[in-house]
Amino acid sequence: MKENSNLSNLRKNILGVAWLWLGVLLMALALPLALPAQDTGYISGTVTDKSGASIVGADIVITSADGSLTRSTATNAGGAYVVAALPGGTYNLAVTAKGFQKFSATKVVLDVAQKIRVDVQLTVGEINEVIEVTGESVVQVETQSSELSGTVTGKQIDQLVLNGRNFTQLVNLVPGVVNQTGQDEGTVGIYGNVAFSMNGGRTEYNNWELDGGDNMDNGSNATLNVYPNPEAIAEFKVLTSNYGAQYGRNGSGTVEVETKSGGSSFHGSAFEYLRNDVFNARPWESGNDPAHPNPPYKKHDFGYTVGGPVYLPNHYNADKKKTFFF
């Protein structure tokens, strides 16, 4: 009986240690990294009635389109609100106040590090009555910043052809950027080159940031520490001039890269990008001479992505609304 009791206690101790380590792992995944927030944006505005008077204490709720992020606040004494630290994405905005109809704005697109303003005018009525507008009707002109910038979207990254699968080649899509790398086929690592002149600035004076952290090889100022695969990039923003002091360090351009994140459902992809000399046309100078075949060239870029929620049924994150991975 004593041996059975000792065995039972041992099992309980092992199980307790296992649950402890699992809890530590979940906490590590749940805690945000203490990185600068340069790659996040915000939505701000003022809530008024039809006469233009400010509405104090109106409830503001902003939810990501996939439901994985929700932020809420209330208007201050001047009827103003700010919802900060929002990653790039598509959001829905809801505004409610006692004695007024509910205001709802859907499909509000926020790019990486963008600052947009959504002013709301509420109409007197029952709160169960809803005035709904779409994102296209909400924000038309950038009024929160005088910076010159451009955003390369995830759709462009996914569909535009890259010779070398190096995302930095797409920086050229932004007006004012000149490629001075001297490379036809983009390379990465120690052979990579990020010599892009932005609005006439020196190529070595650019900032390159990945999810808010410095990604520049500060030893050479010529390449990056990490070249994320295009499949892992949500979008990136290129600021060419007149941007805020929060970016600091260098005085030329700034490139803010935001990687993809998981959501409430599991998703993924598998890919291979193949290049082979058998697909290439013959060089014009060799004609049909069999003694001069195409130069050998074989390249494979393959991999996969997977993302989704971190959860334990009936124990942690059962509704799959927090703690995601990609």
Element layout with pairings:
Elements lengths: L1 H29 L10 E8 L10 E6 L5 E5 L5 E7 L2 E8 L5 E9 L4 E3 L2 E2 L8 E5 L13 E5 L1 H6 L17 E3 L16 E3 L8 E4 L2 E2 L18 E9 L12 E6 L7 E10 L21 E12 L14 E2 L1
Parallel strand pairs: 1-7, 1-8, 6-9, 13-16
Antiparallel strand pairs: 1-4, 2-3, 2-5, 5-6, 10-15, 11-12, 13-14, 15-16, 17-18, 18-19
Structural write-up:
The protein has 326 residues and is mostly beta strands. It has 3 domains: 97 residues, Immunoglobulin-like; 112 residues, TonB-dependent receptor, plug domain (Ferric Hydroxamate Uptake Protein, Chain A, domain 1, Beta Complex); 59 residues, no CATH class. Helices cover 11% and strands 33% of the residues. It has 2 helices and 19 strands. The strands form 5 sheets. Strands 3-2-5-6-9 form a 5-stranded mixed beta sheet, with no helix packed on it. A hairpin with a 2-residue loop joins strand 13 and strand 14. The longest helix is centred in the N-terminal third of the chain and has 29 residues. It is globular, with a radius of gyration of 26 Å. 23% of the residues are buried.
